[in-house]
UniProtKB/TrEMBL annotation:
Name of protein: Cell division protein FtsL
Subunit structure: Part of a complex composed of FtsB, FtsL and FtsQ.
InterPro entries recorded: Cell_div_FtsL
Highest taxon of the lineage: Bacteria
Lineage: Bacteria, Pseudomonadati, Pseudomonadota, Betaproteobacteria, Burkholderiales
Keyword Metal-binding: no
UniProt organism field: Sphaerotilus microaerophilus
UniProt function note: Essential cell division protein. May link together the upstream cell division proteins, which are predominantly cytoplasmic, with the downstream cell division proteins, which are predominantly periplasmic.
Family: Belongs to the FtsL family.
Membrane topology (UniProt): Single-pass type II membrane protein
Length: 99
């Protein structure tokens, strides 16, 4: 009978140790999951902010202002338009043939 009691005591101690280890691992994994959820939420917030900034930079008014002020560009008008022709095509057209 004492052997059976001793065996049951060993099984009980092993079971208790396994239960404590499993509980600890469960809490550790839950804490890691919460950290990752918080990190994912932070990344979502950052992505939303970057998307808003991208849309703000891509507005036509801002692009036009940057082109005018920083790149010193101006709108094309017939007065400043220069037409470039292909000399080979012009010569072939003058001879009546195709290039």
């Amino acid at each position: 009978m004492t052997r059976l009691n001793l065996l049951l005591l060993v099984v009980l101690v092993c079971s208790a140790i396994y239960l404590v280890q499993t509980s600890y691992e469960s809490r550790r994994l839950y804490a890691a999951l919460e950290r990752e959820r918080n990190a994912a939420h932070q990344l979502d917030v950052e992505a939303e902010g970057l998307d808003v900034a991208r849309r703000a930079y891509a507005t036509s008014l801002r692009v036009e202002r940057v082109a005018r002020e920083e790149l010193r560009m101006r709108a094309a008008t017939p007065a400043v338009t220069e037409y470039v022709t292909d000399p080979a095509r012009t010569a072939a057209a003058a001879q009546g043939g195709r290039p």
